[in-house]
Amino acid sequence: MPEPLLKVDGLQKRFGRGKNAYQALTDVSFEVGQGEIVGLVGESGSGKSTIIRCLVGLEKEDAGTISYDGIDPVSASKADLRRYRREVQMVFQDPYSSLDPRMTVQEILEEPMLVIGGFSPADRRARIHELIDMVGLLPEHLTRHPRHFSGGQRQRIAIVRSLVVDPRVLLCDEPVSALDVSVQAQVLNLIKDMQRRLDLTVLFVSHDLAVVKYLCTRLVVLDKGVIAETGDVPAIYDAPQDPYTRALMEAVPVPDPVLERARRARRLEAAR
Amino acid sequence: MDTTTPLLTLDRLSVSVPERERIGGGVGDLTLVEELSLQIRPGERVALVGESGSGKSMTARSILRLDPHLRLAGSIRWKDQELVGAPERRLRRVRGREISMIFQDPMTALNPVLTIGEQVAEPLTVRGMPKRKAHAKAVEMLDRLGVPKAKERMRAYPGQFSGGMRQRVVMAAALVAQPDLLIADEPTTALDVRVQEQVLDLLEEQSREMNLAVLFITHDLGIVAGLAHRVAVMLRGCLVEERTVDDLFTCPEHPYTRGLIGSVPRLDADPDVRLKTVADYMSTEGATTHA
Amino acid sequence: MTDVNTATAHASAAGIGRALGTGARRLLGGRRVGIVDKLAFALVALLVVVAIVGLVVTPHDPFGVDTKQALLPPGAGHLFGTDDVGRDVLSRMLAGAGRTLLVAVGIVIASTAIGVAVASLAALAPRWLDETIMRVCDILMSLPSLVLALGLAAALGPSMTSIVLAMIATSWPATARLMRNILRETMTSSYVESARILGMSRIRLMRHHVLPNSLDAIYVQASMEIAGTIVMISGLAFLGVGAPPPSPDWGSLIAAGQDYITTAWWIALFPGLAITVAAIAFGLAGDAIRSSVDPSSRRS
């Protein structure tokens, strides 16, 4: 594995109090190496999104440490925290709620640079134009509001927003699960391309093992807040060790009628 | 070719929003579905596939006329009656009893203040079946759909059920009156893969056992491969291809269909081979698409 | 010639109708405007114009006592008749429109401003402060505005100021509670979170993202409140909490006419009708704004 860039160690998180308390994460530790695309996989309630939300500070972990390139965001100096916020960016799941409906695309894309600071107007212009060109948007799109765009286009805008400040790490929280399958393919290809061109390190949260296989190099499987299995993608897909991983893998539908019917027959047979 | 009489025949069905109902203005009627023809026979499972905005849901909803402000043209023939222009009274007889429908979100499809039992038995009690008998039938249906301890859970409230269990309850309510056709509008989109598989299996099983026809609406061609007999593909309000499921997957004709199949990530595919997109197919054939 | 005149009249009427339609439509975010909505907006516009003009110009002097003209029924000289000291009822109503409608609008603007400010504070505050502010609002909401106004009037003497202060004091907490929940909800949307991740300050978050996206709800809340406020201040004035005679606000006009209700019904009836019409017009206009903002009636 390459040099670890992002480390999560002993992460614990509990939501709620008393009887309704719910342990979202139990002692979660893993590393993400420079240039890797790591898939964080699990069903709803597995805690996969909570990890990302802890990483960006939207949730506060109960215990455990996060470290990125030597920076622990909890105890970091102001300058280090600023660097962390710039270099670790996030893409949200729902492109319909992640763009401020009252802003133009231009304003949305400028915001991160204005908040982080240190970008001249010329820098801002140049970065926006360079990136929208890379993702296949046009300069005339900049003056429009998010409502004029389809889900796929919105997710491109959201990806550009996360990239304008030149991050090294991209945290993706199910960025394609709200999209149609046909649009999902375009966004997956886009993430793959951008990762290569900009040498990004990606942590990709998903519930879809087929998507993760296509995109990721390594895999962390989460089951009810506990890591079930980690490893390189080819190894795990060839021989999943954990029964939960195997169950998730077996449930992925195949777009082939003959195979699918055979699979169903086997399942029904096994149930009997 | 199947020669049984069709249960449902859509003949050049068009659905449009009249100008005065258009939200955000705009001139002229807005066509959502254009001259769509489709037949469903008893016990047949048909998948209607397309992207959001393709008109697939509108087609399904129009069969039961769930959006009364929309304008329908053409014909919807159900058994021996015409549903386009039929009085509301007649549609009510068809809805729920002969044709029922389940939706994407099992969380909002159930009324949180009524018990599971009341909701599953409702389609029967509403038509005057005695409470006790309806109750028994509801338990039987929940049991068939694999809800454990069905009898005890009749008194539970939807809030006490997980997403997958709720979708089973929704299905039980939809099937308890023994309809001839079930319209399923993206019923698994909000579910985890393992639960999705269970719901698809249940649908297939019930369809076979009850000789239930199913119209399955989805954006994901991948999940209908093992379920549907026939697949109809919609693009921008029009039907572009309709074939048996085997034909469609082995030799899709329309470039858009090929795009839909190509864009499904597969576990058995080489990750280094770039995922095809609809645009790849459409542009090479000279057609345009909106991303 | 007459034909041309009627034609122009028709054309300009149609023009005004269209202009109203587009104006209302812009206000309603592009939604198509029904005839009832149009009528409500037209009435509100008319009432506001009348209220402003009435403060300056009226057909007769609204305060001019002329006992020889007392208790004249509605007729050519005095369209709505005269009161017990010979003042023109219509003129007094016009003069009173501003003292009723504009005061109501002013009260709503003030209480909304206070409510939104408190709500923003609560939404940004740590949990304990948020809770405290909300409990204080609950306590204030439980004070009946009528009793508070009567108390204030006793302390300050009956005046319009007492009514205004009492109304503001009792209506902002409800706005604050509602707005705090709306602001909190807007704060959980991903676009606000995405700005938070970058380290944007909470005050800037509130100003840039949260408040602008909660404006719709603020407008709706305010517009719905005007109708109730009109009725409320008229009621308080009727009870004698408001400005002492000869103030022509509508509540006082009804109070002045109540002794003559069997003999000179017009003194109380016309102001009463005015209150009803104004409350309905503002109510319908508020309703139209609400339904245009309601996500269930709007698709993007």
UniProtKB/TrEMBL annotation, chain A:
UniProt domain ABC transporter: residue ranges: 6-249
The organism's place on the tree of life at top rank: Bacteria
SMART domains according to UniProt: AAA (SM00382)
SUPFAM superfamilies, sorted: P-loop containing nucleoside triphosphate hydrolases (SSF52540)
First and last residue of the signal peptide: none
InterPro entries assigned: AAA+_ATPase, ABC_transp_ATP-bind, ABC_transporter-like_ATP-bd, ABC_transporter-like_CS, P-loop_NTPase
Claim: Transport is one of the keywords in the record: yes
Entry similarity comment: Belongs to the ABC transporter superfamily.
The protein's name in its UniProt record: ATP-binding cassette domain-containing protein
Organism this protein belongs to: Nocardioides ginsengisoli
From TrEMBL, chain B:
Record flagged with keyword Chaperone: no
Record-linked Pfam families: ABC_tran (PF00005), oligo_HPY (PF08352)
Localisation: Cell membrane
SMART domains: AAA
Domain ABC transporter as annotated: residue spans: 8-261
Topology of the protein relative to the lipid bilayer: Peripheral membrane protein
PROSITE patterns xref list: ABC_TRANSPORTER_1 (PS00211), ABC_TRANSPORTER_2 (PS50893)
Annotated keywords: ATP-binding, Cell inner membrane, Cell membrane, Membrane, Nucleotide-binding, Translocase, Transport
Molecular function via GO: ATP binding
Key word ATP-binding present: yes
Listed InterPro entries: AAA+_ATPase (IPR003593), ABC_Ni/Peptide_Import (IPR050388), ABC_transporter-like_ATP-bd (IPR003439), ABC_transporter-like_CS (IPR017871), Oligopep_ABC_C (IPR013563), P-loop_NTPase (IPR027417)
Family to which the UniProt record says this protein belongs: Belongs to the ABC transporter superfamily.
Protein name: ATP-binding cassette domain-containing protein
Organism for this UniProt entry: Nocardioides ginsengisoli
Automatic annotation (TrEMBL), chain C:
Cell membrane is among the record's keywords: yes
Protein name: ABC transporter permease
ABC transmembrane type-1 domain location: 97-286
Membrane topology of this protein: Multi-pass membrane protein
Subcellular location, principal: membrane
PANTHER family for this protein: D,D-DIPEPTIDE TRANSPORT SYSTEM PERMEASE PROTEIN DDPC-RELATED, OLIGOPEPTIDE TRANSPORT SYSTEM PERMEASE PROTEIN APPC
Assigned protein family: Belongs to the binding-protein-dependent transport system permease family.
Subcellular location: Cell membrane
Transmembrane portions of the chain: 35-57, 101-124, 226-244, 264-289
Top-level taxon: Bacteria
Pfam families referenced in this protein's UniProt entry, alphabetically: BPD_transp_1 (PF00528)
Keywords linked to the UniProt accession: Cell membrane, Membrane, Transmembrane, Transmembrane helix, Transport
